[in-house]
Amino acid sequence: MSDKITEVEQHGIAPIPPEEQTSRPRDLFRMAFGGANTFATIILGTLPIAYGLSFRDAALATALGVVVGGLVLAPMALFGPRTRTNNAVSSGAHFGVVGRCVGSFLSLLTAITFFAISVWVSGDAVAGAAQRLFGFDGGAVLRAVAYGVIAIATLVVCIYGYRFMLLVNRVAVVLGTAIMLLGVLAYGGSFDPGYAGTGTYALGTFWPTFTLAALTALANPISFGAFLGDWARYIPSSFSKRSLLAAPFLAQVATLLPFGFGIATATLVADPADYITGLTAVSPLWYAIPLIVVALIGGLSTGTTSLYGTGLDFSSIFPRLSRVQATLLIGTLSVAFIFIGNFALDMVSSINAFATLIVLCTSPWMVIMMIGFVQRRGFYDVADLQVFNEGRKGGRYWFARGVNWRAMAAWIPATTLGLLCANTPMIAGPLRDIAGGVDVSLLVTLVTAAVAYPVLVKLFPEPPEVFASTPASSAVLQVEEWAAEV
Predict the structure, then answer these.
(1) CA 448, 452, 453, 454: dihedral to nearest 10 degrees?
(2) CA angle (467, 103, 69) in 5-degree steps
(3) pLDDT for residue 21 is more than 80
(4) Phi and psi at residue 428, to the nearest 5°
(5) Residue 161 DSSP class
């Protein structure tokens, strides 16, 4: 398929033709790992140190968050090969073909956040390394130029589509890994594994701060939940569940490399809250160029994996927009957020708030989809999932005016309770002290969704046609335009 790398991808969210499902689980690993083997993940790795934790505790909290997040994420790779579309559209089987807009909202929230992180930190790293190399302080102008170049390059890759993204991520996996390992030589002589932390915890005491650090790390794998289907849809359903589950999980375990790089180097800088400036100041001169390479390649990798899926899905909600047009629109809005957030607001605090929202809104959505997958025994009607996108109504997944109220009645309380229990610097709910200040928001939101959805389905069974043993209702599918109903 190398001859298609430089061709603009024509596929939107319509099912991928079986003959074009030529990817493998290892390609899914490359996309997921490449999208996280970047400065964006390094920055997330520095936050536990900025919260005041020691190196050991920061490493433990991060490992816990990554492993738990990887386990929650892995099943989201099962949908794409069966539905041949992205996860937001696939969620229509459980939330209804109109209710699946919840997934589109989550995709948009995640894309803007991680696209902003990738461009922001990569641009700052380029500007800082340039100053270290040439002694030139370009200030806000140089940073703005760096943001613009990386953002435009990311948009170009997204417009070309999946095959080009796969090439970028193959490069990012190898090059990013090699340069981070090279950091052992650059910083090994200064690093102290016994670093004891600042002694001042972000949330006052140890366990609430430790939990905050674990949730920060967990946000990274959870952020891929809405996007795995963007790439998994190119994998044939003939591959085993084991290989599909292993690919995203192992990709997240591999991100312990950039997380570890961030944790270790954050102990060396004067102010972990101003990590990029501090890192370039303590870096050997010979390591400045590799830092620029990691920043550029990593910015492309993270930015494209985030932005591509949202452009893809946004075009399905507004059919008048092609995938390319939707990508350009979302990309432009994201760039505006980057400039406003960096030059007018507190970017770090904004990202922390968005990361919390991603975890608490996306994780119950993922749980409901996973339970639904088991209940349906992996059966999906590919044609009926496309009803909303094609301006029709009816089909297996129409439920009540296109919404499955059972799933919504589980997701909304789960998300709400999670936010009420959150205890972070930016988002602190009224129930934040329910466990002595320890943030139990993730546990609450997961348990609520995992209990509420099966109970609701038991009490109010879903229509029999959503199961494989029932004849398809597509024969009575109404073909009126969506506007006709209004």
Answers:
(1) 120
(2) 95
(3) yes
(4) -125, 110
(5) -
Cβ neighbours of residue 390 closer than 8 Å, sequence gap 6 or more:
none
| CA dist., res. 346 & res. 131, Å (int) | 23
Q: Are 233 and 83 in contact (CB under 8 A)?
A: yes
Distance of CA 413 to the CA centre of its chain: 22
**194 phi/psi in degrees, rounded to 5:** -90, 10
Domain ranges of the chain: 18-391
| Three-state secondary-structure class, residue 393 | strand
State how far the Cα of 254 lies from the Cα of 177, in Å rounded to an integer: 10
Alpha carbons 262 and 183: distance in angstroms, whole number: 11
Q: What is the pLDDT of residue 319?
A: 64
Confidence of residue 1 (pLDDT cuts 50, 70, 90): very low
Q: How many CA atoms lie within 13 A of 421 on its CB side?
A: 23
Distance CA 355, CA 347 (A): 12
Residue 479 has pLDDT above 50, yes or no: no
Residues 159, 162, 168, 170, Cα dihedral to 10°: 180
Residues with Cβ within 8 Å of residue 240, at least 6 apart in sequence: none
d(CA 85, CA 204): 45
Instruction: Report whether 404 contacts 96 (CB < 8 A).
Output: yes
* Of 178 and 109, the one with more pLDDT: 178
Query: In Å, what is the CA distance from 392 to each residue of 45, 136, 478, 485?
Result: 46, 59, 7, 10
Write down the CATH number for the domain with range 18-391: 1.10.4160.10
Instruction: Kindly state the tokens that stand for 314.
Output: 């946004």
